[in-house]
Design a protein that fits this description.
With about 210 residues, the chain is mainly beta. The protein starts with a helix and ends with a strand. The chain contains two helices and 16 strands. Strands 10, 12, 13, 14, 15 and 16 form a six-stranded mixed β-sheet that branches. Strands 1-3-6-5 form a four-stranded antiparallel β-sheet, with no helix packed on it. A four-stranded mixed β-sheet has the order 2-8-7-4, with no helix packed on it. Helices cover about 10% and strands about 45% of the residues. A hairpin with a 5-residue loop joins β12 and β13 (about 150-160).
Length: about 210
Protein backbone atom coordinates (compact mmCIF):
# COMPACT_ATOMS: atom_id res chain seq x y z
CA UNK A 1 0.00 0.00 0.00
CA UNK A 2 2.85 2.35 0.88
CA UNK A 3 4.53 1.63 -2.49
CA UNK A 4 1.31 2.45 -4.35
CA UNK A 5 1.01 5.73 -2.45
CA UNK A 6 4.61 6.67 -3.25
CA UNK A 7 4.06 5.80 -6.94
CA UNK A 8 0.89 7.91 -7.02
CA UNK A 9 2.65 10.91 -5.48
CA UNK A 10 5.62 10.50 -7.84
CA UNK A 11 3.44 10.43 -10.96
CA UNK A 12 1.55 13.52 -9.83
CA UNK A 13 4.78 15.39 -9.23
CA UNK A 14 6.02 14.46 -12.70
CA UNK A 15 2.73 15.58 -14.23
CA UNK A 16 3.51 19.11 -13.05
CA UNK A 17 7.00 19.48 -14.52
CA UNK A 18 7.94 20.56 -18.07
CA UNK A 19 8.16 17.91 -20.80
CA UNK A 20 9.07 17.71 -24.47
CA UNK A 21 6.02 17.94 -26.73
CA UNK A 22 5.65 16.57 -30.26
CA UNK A 23 9.37 15.93 -30.76
CA UNK A 24 9.88 13.42 -33.58
CA UNK A 25 12.54 10.76 -34.04
CA UNK A 26 14.59 12.61 -36.67
CA UNK A 27 16.33 16.00 -36.85
CA UNK A 28 17.13 17.15 -40.39
CA UNK A 29 20.37 18.71 -41.57
CA UNK A 30 20.45 22.39 -42.47
CA UNK A 31 16.92 23.33 -41.33
CA UNK A 32 15.33 24.67 -38.15
CA UNK A 33 14.15 21.65 -36.18
CA UNK A 34 11.59 22.91 -33.65
CA UNK A 35 11.85 21.52 -30.14
CA UNK A 36 8.61 22.32 -28.33
CA UNK A 37 8.17 22.16 -24.59
CA UNK A 38 5.03 21.89 -22.50
CA UNK A 39 5.82 24.11 -19.53
CA UNK A 40 2.91 22.72 -17.50
CA UNK A 41 2.44 26.09 -15.84
CA UNK A 42 6.08 26.49 -14.82
CA UNK A 43 8.34 29.46 -15.44
CA UNK A 44 10.52 29.33 -18.55
CA UNK A 45 13.52 30.64 -16.62
CA UNK A 46 13.45 27.45 -14.53
CA UNK A 47 14.11 25.22 -17.55
CA UNK A 48 17.17 24.47 -19.63
CA UNK A 49 17.57 22.37 -22.78
CA UNK A 50 20.81 20.69 -23.80
CA UNK A 51 21.75 18.74 -26.94
CA UNK A 52 24.63 16.33 -27.46
CA UNK A 53 25.06 17.55 -31.07
CA UNK A 54 24.28 20.59 -33.19
CA UNK A 55 23.35 24.05 -31.95
CA UNK A 56 20.32 25.04 -29.90
CA UNK A 57 18.61 28.44 -30.11
CA UNK A 58 15.76 29.67 -27.93
CA UNK A 59 12.90 30.95 -30.12
CA UNK A 60 10.45 31.74 -27.32
CA UNK A 61 9.57 30.56 -23.82
CA UNK A 62 8.37 27.13 -24.96
CA UNK A 63 10.19 26.59 -28.27
CA UNK A 64 13.82 25.91 -29.09
CA UNK A 65 15.43 25.33 -32.48
CA UNK A 66 18.01 22.63 -33.12
CA UNK A 67 20.32 23.02 -36.14
CA UNK A 68 22.64 20.21 -37.22
CA UNK A 69 25.16 20.23 -40.06
CA UNK A 70 26.01 16.56 -40.49
CA UNK A 71 24.42 13.12 -40.03
CA UNK A 72 24.29 11.89 -36.45
CA UNK A 73 23.50 8.36 -35.34
CA UNK A 74 22.25 9.58 -31.98
CA UNK A 75 21.36 13.00 -30.61
CA UNK A 76 20.44 13.23 -26.94
CA UNK A 77 18.07 16.03 -25.98
CA UNK A 78 17.81 16.69 -22.26
CA UNK A 79 15.31 18.93 -20.52
CA UNK A 80 16.18 20.29 -17.08
CA UNK A 81 13.80 21.81 -14.56
CA UNK A 82 15.47 23.69 -11.71
CA UNK A 83 18.75 22.00 -12.76
CA UNK A 84 17.24 18.50 -12.45
CA UNK A 85 16.68 16.44 -15.60
CA UNK A 86 12.96 15.86 -16.12
CA UNK A 87 12.72 14.59 -19.72
CA UNK A 88 14.99 13.18 -22.43
CA UNK A 89 14.59 12.37 -26.13
CA UNK A 90 16.85 10.51 -28.55
CA UNK A 91 16.90 11.66 -32.18
CA UNK A 92 18.69 10.65 -35.34
CA UNK A 93 20.33 13.33 -37.48
CA UNK A 94 19.61 12.75 -41.16
CA UNK A 95 19.42 14.51 -44.53
CA UNK A 96 16.12 16.02 -45.59
CA UNK A 97 14.30 13.85 -48.18
CA UNK A 98 14.66 15.54 -51.56
CA UNK A 99 11.59 17.04 -53.25
CA UNK A 100 10.45 15.39 -56.49
CA UNK A 101 9.90 17.40 -59.68
CA UNK A 102 6.96 16.24 -61.75
CA UNK A 103 3.90 17.32 -63.70
CA UNK A 104 0.51 16.96 -62.08
CA UNK A 105 -0.77 14.48 -64.66
CA UNK A 106 2.26 12.30 -65.21
CA UNK A 107 2.71 8.94 -63.53
CA UNK A 108 6.19 7.69 -62.69
CA UNK A 109 7.74 9.54 -65.63
CA UNK A 110 5.07 8.57 -68.16
CA UNK A 111 2.03 10.31 -69.58
CA UNK A 112 -1.10 8.64 -70.95
CA UNK A 113 -3.41 10.56 -73.28
CA UNK A 114 -6.27 8.23 -72.32
CA UNK A 115 -6.55 9.95 -68.96
CA UNK A 116 -5.57 13.58 -69.55
CA UNK A 117 -5.36 16.23 -72.26
CA UNK A 118 -2.26 17.96 -70.94
CA UNK A 119 0.54 17.53 -68.42
CA UNK A 120 -0.79 20.05 -65.93
CA UNK A 121 1.33 22.08 -63.56
CA UNK A 122 5.07 21.47 -63.19
CA UNK A 123 5.99 21.55 -59.52
CA UNK A 124 8.19 20.18 -56.80
CA UNK A 125 6.36 17.76 -54.52
CA UNK A 126 7.81 18.10 -51.03
CA UNK A 127 7.83 15.54 -48.22
CA UNK A 128 5.62 16.50 -45.28
CA UNK A 129 8.65 17.16 -43.07
CA UNK A 130 10.07 19.76 -45.47
CA UNK A 131 9.80 23.25 -43.90
CA UNK A 132 7.00 25.28 -45.45
CA UNK A 133 9.10 28.45 -45.65
CA UNK A 134 11.69 26.67 -47.81
CA UNK A 135 9.28 25.39 -50.44
CA UNK A 136 9.35 27.11 -53.83
CA UNK A 137 7.25 27.46 -56.97
CA UNK A 138 8.41 26.92 -60.54
CA UNK A 139 8.62 30.21 -62.48
CA UNK A 140 10.35 29.01 -65.67
CA UNK A 141 11.88 25.92 -67.26
CA UNK A 142 13.52 24.63 -70.44
CA UNK A 143 11.61 22.04 -72.45
CA UNK A 144 12.67 19.81 -75.33
CA UNK A 145 10.35 17.47 -77.22
CA UNK A 146 11.36 14.46 -79.30
CA UNK A 147 9.18 12.33 -81.52
CA UNK A 148 9.14 8.52 -81.49
CA UNK A 149 12.20 8.48 -83.80
CA UNK A 150 14.23 10.61 -81.41
CA UNK A 151 14.08 13.73 -83.58
CA UNK A 152 13.79 17.07 -81.80
CA UNK A 153 10.57 18.79 -82.83
CA UNK A 154 10.51 21.63 -80.33
CA UNK A 155 12.62 23.28 -77.64
CA UNK A 156 12.30 26.53 -75.75
CA UNK A 157 12.48 28.29 -72.40
CA UNK A 158 8.98 28.63 -70.95
CA UNK A 159 7.83 31.11 -68.34
CA UNK A 160 5.51 29.94 -65.60
CA UNK A 161 4.75 26.35 -64.58
CA UNK A 162 2.60 25.21 -67.53
CA UNK A 163 3.09 24.57 -71.20
CA UNK A 164 2.06 27.64 -73.20
CA UNK A 165 -0.11 27.60 -76.34
CA UNK A 166 2.79 27.04 -78.75
CA UNK A 167 4.42 24.24 -76.76
CA UNK A 168 1.00 22.62 -76.22
CA UNK A 169 0.50 22.56 -79.98
CA UNK A 170 3.72 20.58 -80.43
CA UNK A 171 2.96 18.42 -77.41
CA UNK A 172 -0.36 17.33 -78.90
CA UNK A 173 1.53 16.02 -81.94
CA UNK A 174 3.64 13.63 -79.91
CA UNK A 175 2.68 9.99 -80.38
CA UNK A 176 3.50 6.93 -78.29
CA UNK A 177 7.28 6.67 -77.95
CA UNK A 178 7.76 10.40 -77.97
CA UNK A 179 9.16 12.19 -74.93
CA UNK A 180 9.76 15.56 -73.35
CA UNK A 181 12.80 16.57 -71.30
CA UNK A 182 12.77 19.27 -68.65
CA UNK A 183 15.87 21.11 -67.39
CA UNK A 184 17.08 24.48 -66.11
CA UNK A 185 14.15 24.79 -63.72
CA UNK A 186 13.98 28.20 -62.01
CA UNK A 187 12.04 28.40 -58.76
CA UNK A 188 11.11 31.27 -56.49
CA UNK A 189 10.80 31.34 -52.73
CA UNK A 190 9.44 34.37 -50.81
CA UNK A 191 12.36 34.20 -48.37
CA UNK A 192 15.36 33.02 -50.44
CA UNK A 193 14.41 34.45 -53.86
CA UNK A 194 15.18 32.84 -57.23
CA UNK A 195 17.09 29.60 -57.67
CA UNK A 196 18.33 27.59 -60.64
CA UNK A 197 17.68 23.92 -59.90
CA UNK A 198 20.08 21.64 -61.76
CA UNK A 199 17.62 18.85 -62.40
CA UNK A 200 16.77 16.89 -65.53
CA UNK A 201 13.65 14.83 -66.00
CA UNK A 202 12.05 12.98 -68.88
CA UNK A 203 8.41 12.16 -69.41
CA UNK A 204 7.60 9.47 -71.97
CA UNK A 205 4.36 9.31 -73.95
CA UNK A 206 3.01 5.78 -73.63
CA UNK A 207 -0.03 5.90 -75.93
Amino acid sequence: MLLLLIKFLFLNILAGVPAFEGVGAVAYIGVDNEIRINLNGNLSEDIEVKSSAGTLFKRNDSTYVLVINQPEEEIKLKLYYKKIICDMKTLRGDRMPAPVLRFENEKDGTFSRKNFKDLGKLQFFYPDVFPANQRAEVVSFYIMMKDANGQIIYRNNLRGDHLDATSMNYFQKLMSGGAITISNVITQNPYSGMRNNQVNKTVEIID
